[in-house]
């Protein structure tokens, strides 16, 4: 189990490597990128693109992403927050799952 | 491969969401029947693993990026149904907190990455095992095919948009590129780079788990979901 924790921490610390890849993923452009590509922003895209504002948009801390160091910290922070949120959801699921188990005992 | 908000029409979002409902319902039933409460942390680890490796963007020739998913690895270790739940939760957190993939598009994104990818990958893995290939090679091939199947599904959902949803004069309302552009672009990125990364990660982790005494962890859950007690 200890090895697993060490591996997890190493992977989290390495996540900023993902920042080094240039450009966005194909089909995941921002509205300004779409505009420069085809000359206009499709109506539905601009209408729905801001339905929900993310708390940490694109795995960065808003206003704290001006250089690579800040972006890298934002990425690591996002990884920790994301994993914590996942663990929390599964903890809740585990509680819900506990009930039918008790019936069988 | 995360479809952002506004890239596919609300109708498409509704159809894909409706397609995911029975998948999650069956998955929840199967997992609840065969998993103990103490097995849940394994699903959390799988979910967190997928979440994290999706942050590793890989450069694709031509200036775009792609990423691995880990879907086939989760399907092999947890069984495809538990993998489906774990991946859906990772995608939900990505959409909700980080704006990676739309909230309305969550049905489509989970259909591609939490249903197509783990089930196709797992099916290919089982097929390769039945052809007497070893587990490492089988899992790598499964990972490669699984992520590419998901990329193809994503490309089709995007590429259908201008065909189905446009104004009277033909201006696209949502994603502007048709199937003839979307499929080659998505498949190029995943057949050449992302698929290979997914295959290597899947194969390496399976190799590691086989070499150490963690192999029981590796197959315990998928055995459980299949009902064999090995």
From TrEMBL, chain A:
The chain crosses the membrane at residues 72-93. It comes from the Bacteria. The keyword Repeat does not apply. GO terms for cellular component: plasma membrane. It is found in: Cell membrane. Residues 5-97 form the PDGLE domain. Coiled coil: none annotated. The keyword Membrane applies. Its main location: membrane. Keywords: Cell membrane, Membrane, Transmembrane, Transmembrane helix. This is Cobalt/nickel transport protein. It comes from Thermoanaerobacter kivui (Acetogenium kivui).
UniProtKB/TrEMBL annotation, chain B:
Gene3D superfamilies: 1.10.1760.20. GO terms for biological process: transition metal ion transport. InterPro entries: CbiM/NikMN (IPR002751). Keywords: Cell membrane, Membrane, Transmembrane, Transmembrane helix, Transport. It is found in: Cell membrane. It comes from Thermoanaerobacter kivui. It is a multi-pass membrane protein. The keyword Transmembrane helix applies. It comes from the Bacteria. Pfam families: CbiM. One of its GO terms (cellular component) is plasma membrane. This is Cobalt/nickel transport system permease protein. The chain crosses the membrane at residues 7-28, 40-60, 72-97, 103-125, 137-161, 181-209.
């Amino acid at each position: 189990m200890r090895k697993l924790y060490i591996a997890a921490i190493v992977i989290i610390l390495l996540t900023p490597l993902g920042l080094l890849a240039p450009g966005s993923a194909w089909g995941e452009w921002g509205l300004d990128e779409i505009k420069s590509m085809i000359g206009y922003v499709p109506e539905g895209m601009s209408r729905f693109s801001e339905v929900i504002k993310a708390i940490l948009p694109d795995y960065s801390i808003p206003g704290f992403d001006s250089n690579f160091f800040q972006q890298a910290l934002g990425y690591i922070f996002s990884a920790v927050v994301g994993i914590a949120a996942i663990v929390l959801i599964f903890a809740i699921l585990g509680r819900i799952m506990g009930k039918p188990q008790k019936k069988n005992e | 491969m995360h479809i952002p908000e506004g890239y596919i029409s609300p109708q498409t979002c509704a159809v894909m969401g409706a397609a995911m409902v029975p998948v999650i319902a069956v998955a929840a039933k199967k997992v609840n029947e065969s998993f103990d409460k103490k097995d849940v942390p394994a699903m959390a680890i799988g979910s967190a693993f997928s979440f994290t490796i999706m942050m590793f963007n890989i450069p694709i020739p031509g200036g775009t990026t792609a990423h691995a998913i880990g879907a086939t690895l989760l399907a092999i270790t947890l069984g495809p149904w538990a993998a489906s739940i774990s991946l859906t939760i990772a995608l939900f957190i990505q959409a909700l907190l980080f704006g990676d993939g739309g909230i309305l598009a969550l049905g489509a994104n989970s259909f591609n990455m939490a249903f197509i990818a783990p089930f196709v990958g797992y099916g290919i893995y089982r097929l390769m095992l039945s052809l007497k290939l070893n587990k490492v090679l089988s899992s790598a091939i499964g990972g490669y095919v699984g992520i590419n199947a998901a990329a193809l599904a994503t490309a089709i959902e995007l590429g259908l948009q201008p065909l189905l949803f446009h104004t009277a004069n033909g201006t696209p309302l949502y994603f502007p590129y048709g199937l003839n552009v979307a499929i080659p672009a998505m498949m190029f990125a995943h057949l050449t780079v992302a698929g290979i990364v997914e295959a290597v990660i899947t194969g390496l982790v399976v190799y590691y788990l086989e070499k150490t005494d963690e192999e029981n962890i590796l197959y315990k859950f998928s055995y459980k979901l299949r009902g064999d007690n090995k």
